Amino acid sequence: MVPPLVLWTVYYYNTPVEILNPQSTCAILREKIISVESERSVLVGSFWGIPQMTPEGLFKILLENYGPQGWWPANSFDELCVGAILVQNTSWDNARKAISNLAKAGLISFEAIKAASLDDIIEAVYPAGTYRRKSAVLKAFSEDFSSDFGTVATFRSIATDSARRWLLQRKGIGFETADSILCYGAERALLVVDAYTRRLSKRLGWLSLEKPSYEAFQRHLQGKLPCSSRALGEFHALVVFHCKKFCKRHPDCTTCVLAEHCFFDMSAGPL
Question: Which residue stretches of 44-174 are H helix?
Answer without folding.
Answer: 55-66, 77-86, 92-104, 110-115, 118-125, 131-148, 152-157, 160-168
